[in-house]
Specification:
This protein has about 300 residues and is an alpha/beta fold. The protein has one domain: CofD-like domains (Rossmann fold, 3-Layer(aba) Sandwich), CATH 3.40.50.10680. About 40% of the residues lie in helices and about 20% in strands. The strands form 4 sheets. A 7-stranded parallel β-sheet has the order 5-2-1-9-10-13-14, with helices on both faces. A hairpin with a 2-residue loop joins strand 11 and strand 12. The chain starts with a strand and ends with a helix. The structure holds guanosine-5'-diphosphate. Guanosine-5'-diphosphate binds next to helix 1.
C-alpha cells in the first residue's frame, strides 16, 4: 500500500502518473479539506473532487478544477436571474456536489467520498483528511479574508501577512493507512494550505516518522509553479525555496525530490534530508508525470 497526501493541483498531476505506474487498488489518497465550505447551497470540497475526477479520468486538467468539457447552464442562469455564484460550478460538477451534500448529511463526508469513488469506478481509496470543517483566514493588507474570497474575488493579489487555520480531528483510518503503508508520498502541493493542515492532525507527524516518506518540492527556484504558495510561505517567514519546503518536513522526511534547476541547493538540503533526488519535476505532459512517478516508486527501499 502507498499513501499519498494531496491538495488539488500539484499532487493530482502526479496521481495521473502514479496510476499508470502502480495499481490504483494499492493507493490511499489523503486529501486536504481546509478550504471546504458551502457555496450555492452545495458542499464544495474542491480538492477531494479534483482527486475523484483525476482518478476517474474526468478532470479538467487545464484548470485543475471541475469536469472536462462540462457545461455551465445552471451557473449562467443563476447569473441571469441575479444570483451570481462566487465559484464557477459546471453542471456535471454540480451533480457531484449535490450528491456529496446529500450523502454527507446521511453518512458523513468520509462515507460520502467512499460511495462517490465507487460510483465513479475508482479503485483507489480516497480519504478526506477530516470530517470537520476548518476555519481558515488569510490575514492580508486588506484585512482578514475568507480563503475563497482571497483566491477568487481578490485573485490572490493582496499582500499576505498571516495564514491561520483551526485544528480539526483526523478522519478514521488516516493513521492506520500511514502506518500500514510501505511509503508515503507528499506530492508537490501547497505546503501551507494543503500539506500542513494534514500534518497538523493529531498523530500524523508521529506516524510519518516510522514510515518511508518521500516528498516532491512544489517550489522551483524562488517561486511556486502555480498558485499562492510562495506568498503564504513568505508570510510565515519560511524561505521560499525547496530548502524552505524541506525544513517544514524535516522531522520525518526520508527523501526529497527537487527540480534539476535547484541542483545548487542539493548540499544545503542534504543537511535537512538524508537523500535528495534531482530530476525534472515540471509535469506538463503525461510522460513527465509517469517519469516522476516511476522515480518516486523506484526510490522505495
Ligand atoms: P491547490 O489545492 O489547488 O492549491 O493545489 P495543491 O496544493 O495541490 O498544489 C499547488 C502547488 O502545486 C503549487 O504550490 C505549485 O507550485 C505546485 N505545482 C503545480 N504544478 C506543479 C508541477 O508540475 N511541478 C511541481 N513541482 N509543482 C507543481
Amino acid at each position: 500500500m502507498i499513501t499519498v497526501l494531496s491538495g488539488g493541483t500539484g499532487t493530482p498531476k502526479l496521481l495521473q502518473g502514479l496510476k499508470e505506474v502502480v495499481d490504483a487498488k494499492d493507493l490511499t489518497i489523503i486529501v486536504n479539506t481546509l478550504e471546504n465550505d458551502f457555496f450555492s447551497g452545495v458542499y464544495v470540497s474542491a480538492d477531494i473532487d479534483t482527486v475523484l475526477y483525476t482518478m476517474a479520468d474526468m478532470i479538467n486538467d487545464e484548470l485543475w478544477y471541475g469536469v472536462k468539457d462540462d457545461t455551465f447552464i445552471t451557473h449562467e442562469r443563476l447569473e441571469e436571474i441575479g444570483c451570481p455564484e462566487l465559484l464557477r460550478i459546471g453542471d456535471i460538477d454540480r451533480a457531484t456536489k449535490i450528491q456529496k451534500t446529500q450523502l454527507m448529511e446521511k453518512h458523513g463526508l468520509l462515507k460520502a467520498c467512499e460511495i462517490q469513488a465507487e460510483k465513479m469506478g475508482i479503485d483507489a481509496k480516497i480519504i478526506p483528511m477530516s470530517e470537520e470543517n476548518s476555519d481558515i483566514k488569510i490575514i492580508t493588507d486588506l484585512g482578514e479574508l475568507e480563503f475563497h474570497d482571497f483566491l477568487i474575488k481578490h485573485q490572490s493579489q493582496p499582500e499576505v501577512l498571516d495564514v491561520k487555520f483551526s485544528k480539526v480531528k483526523p478522519s478514521a483510518g488516516i493513521i492506520d493507512a500511514i502506518k500500514n503503508s510501505e511509503a508515503v508520498i507528499i506530492g508537490p502541493s501547497n505546503p501551507i494550505t494543503s500539506i500542513l493542515p494534514i500534518l497538523s492532525l493529531d498523530g500524523v507527524r508521529e506516524a510519518l516518522k516510522d514510515t518511508y516518506v518521500i516528498a516532491v518540492s512544489p517550489i522551483i527556484g524562488n517561486d511556486s509553479v502555480s498558485g499562492p504558495a510562495s506568498k503564504f510561505m513568505k508570510a510565515l517567514d519560511i524561505d521560499v525555496s525547496a530548502v524552505g519546503v524541506a525544513s517544514l518536513y524535516d522531522d520525518f522526511l526520508d527523501t526529497f525530490v527537487i527540480d534539476n534547476k535547484d541542483n545548487d541547493k542539493k548540499v544545503e538540503i542534504n543537511q535537512i534530508v538524508n537523500k535528495v533526488i534531482t530530476t525534472n519535476t515540471i509535469m506538463n505532459n503525461l510522460d513527465a508525470k509517469i517519469n516522476l512517478a516511476r522515480i518516486i516508486i523506484d526510490s522505495i527501499p
